[in-house]
Design goal:
The chain is mostly helical. It has 2 domains: 154 residues, Farnesyl Diphosphate Synthase; 134 residues, Farnesyl Diphosphate Synthase (Orthogonal Bundle). It has 16 helices and 2 strands. It has a two-stranded antiparallel sheet with strand order 1-2. Strand 1 and strand 2 form a beta hairpin.
């Protein structure tokens, strides 16, 4: 995936070249801080890839790509506040390093900065790009609220969960690809197919994330397995376990298990019930749908299309 890695490096260099040394420092320093903590930069890289896929000059997609990355990091700042998280990428979260009020206001300013970057496109494409980005931003808020609502519920349906992860995770991947395609002047149909590619790859990515949380190798994932189990999150694995072994699940829940004993008992049931296999099958089906969407987009750069397909396969079957 050499070209995608090249796009990642270009995005990183462009981010480092941005000037956040402005006043008041308490507003701008947290922006530089969260953006400086690293990250894969995959979403903006996909915008550059999508632009070149349709024969466009990726330089024209660079500023909106930065807007997508700034927006993503804005959402992380606010997520950390809501989750009361102390650590992000191994460092103190913004609200811990400064305080809650500064984190909220700096995050708000990052949202405005994201729009400023997004708007730096040819005027003929601006209405469609702004419409896509604004709808995406709203859906991410909807997804976050759905996820919060799930915390107080004992049962969540598969369709509800898939909608939530679509909005929280997949729509920004889809938007990154669609905006890059629009910058290149791709047709609406092609841009929409590429968006669907991002949506389905993003859904597969999140299901794999759930699988890694429950069954990943700690040395590769970087944390002990079972975090979602310990927090009683309604992941697809737990939804399928309830579908396939409701009585066994209810029995385990009545035992008030803690720590590693809880992780092992629930993990064993997820496997025994067939929930893990069903989740893996769902992930693979979504991945195949994503690849069909990529073909339907009719991008003109065949080599890059193959690399995007390879990237999506890695995304949905990564081990870390």
């Amino acid at each position: 995936m050499d070209r995608i890695q090249g796009y990642v490096k270009r995005v990183e260099a462009a981010l480092q070249a941005q000037n956040f040394s402005l006043q008041p420092a308490e507003l701008y320093e947290p922006m530089a801080y969260i953006l400086g903590l690293g990250g894969k930069r995959l979403r903006p890289a996909l915008s550059l890839a999508a632009c070149e896929l349709f024969g466009g000059a990726s330089e024209k997609a660079l500023m909106p790509a930065l807007g997508i990355e700034v927006f993503h990091n804005f959402s992380l700042v606010h997520d950390d506040i809501m989750d009361e998280a102390d650590v992000r990428r191994g460092k103190a979260t913004v609200h811990k390093k400064w305080n809650r009020d500064i984190a909220i206001l700096s995050g708000d300013a990052m949202l405005v900065k994201a729009y400023q970057y997004i708007a730096q496109v040819d005027s003929e494409h601006l209405p469609a790009i702004l419409a896509c980005f604004s709808q995406t931003a709203l859906e991410i808020c909807e997804g976050q609220q759905r996820d919060m609502n799930f915390e107080s519920r004992t049962e969540v349906q598969e369709e509800e969960y898939l909608l939530m992860i679509r909005q929280k995770t997949a729509v920004l991947l889809g938007a990154a690809l669609k905006i890059g395609a629009l910058v290149a002047g791709a047709s609406e149909a092609s841009a929409d197919s590429l968006y669907d590619f991002g949506i389905n790859a993003g859904l597969a990515f999140q299901i794999q994330d759930d699988l890694l949380d429950a069954f990943g190798d700690p040395e590769k994932v970087g944390k002990k397995p079972g975090g979602d189990i310990l927090q009683d999150k309604k992941t697809l694995l737990m939804i399928y376990t309830r579908q396939l072994a409701a009585k066994d699940l209810e029995f385990l829940q009545s035992q008030d298990l803690k720590g590693e004993a809880k992780v092992k008992a629930f993990g064993d049931l997820i496997i025994k019930s067939g929930a893990r296999a069903k989740a893996e099958a769902k992930r693979d089906h979504l991945m195949q749908t994503a690849l069909a969407d990529l073909e339907a987009a009719h991008g003109s750069d065949e080599a890059l299309k193959a690399e995007l397909a390879q990237f999506a396969q890695w995304l949905s079957h990564r081990d870390r």
